[in-house]
Amino acid sequence: MNASLFDTPGPRAARRDRIITLGSTGLLLLLLIFALTVLSRNGKLEPELWMSLGNSELLALLASGLAATFKVAAVALVLSVLGGAVMAWGLLSKTVWCRAILSGWIEVFRGLPLLLLIFFIFLGGPVIGIEVSTFWSLVLGIVLYNSAVLAEIFRAGIQSLPKGQTEAALAIGLGDGETFRVILLPQAVRRMMPALISQMVVLIKETSLGFVIGYTEFLRDARTAVEYLGGEYSLPIYTLVAVVYISINCTLSFIARRIEATR
């Protein structure tokens, strides 16, 4: 971190920071010990409950749900990136009405709750005579929201590039579309890659909202397993789900930090 952005702590401030850190760590450890004690007293830490995580049928069910989650995430990510890039190009165009329409579109879909978008598509489609599957309801809802967010990320990345890039491209005879596609967008993607990966982390977590419309993704399959095995198995199964989500997102966050460090 750039030390010029803040004052270097003196001996008293450094000692205070250490005390606060040790105190916070101690408090977290006490809370963890208390939670484990309560869980043990209530029989939630019995070995047979946690041994169930090694059941092959359970793991196969969760693996199927995880594959469905990745399928939604992959399709939604590709469509969101394409949609965001197209909208970023429109936002930077010289046509006033195009910029105005896209700005309004982005503000609307970036401001609406994602769950509401999913419900609008899933429940609103049949009203106008269009049957939308749970898969596409989830994908389209995620795409509408994330493409609006990514459009702003791309726009910010492109505007951060030196203006000489555009001027040089136009000077050698490239049109506006070619300049955007060949010169500006590739550089913006490299510059904004950490932000794009961070948005990918958000997108993967958003796939769990398929739970509410019946899409059989990772979290819904975990609930199915709990309903089949019994409520006493909910803690081990949902703990495994949480660990998997955290592992995936921590991996993506690590990649983002590495990319940012090598820029």
Q: What would you say this structure looks like, in words?
A:
It is a single chain. The protein is 79% helix and 0% strand. It is mostly helical and 263 residues long. It has one domain: MetI-like fold. The longest helix has 36 residues. The two termini are 14 Å apart.
Features:
263 residues; mainly alpha; MetI-like fold; 11 helices; 0% strand; disordered N terminus
Distance between the first and last residues' Cα: 14 Å
Largest sheet: none
* Structural domain count: 1
User: Strand content of the residues, in percent?
Assistant: under 5%
Helix content: over 70%
Task: Tell me the layout of helices and strands.
Elements: H1 11-41, H2 47-51, H3 56-91, H4 96-111, H5 114-127, H6 134-159, H7 163-171, H8 176-191, H9 193-206, H10 218-229, H11 234-262
Would you summarize the structure shown here?
By secondary structure, the chain is an all-alpha fold. The chain has 11 helices and no strands.
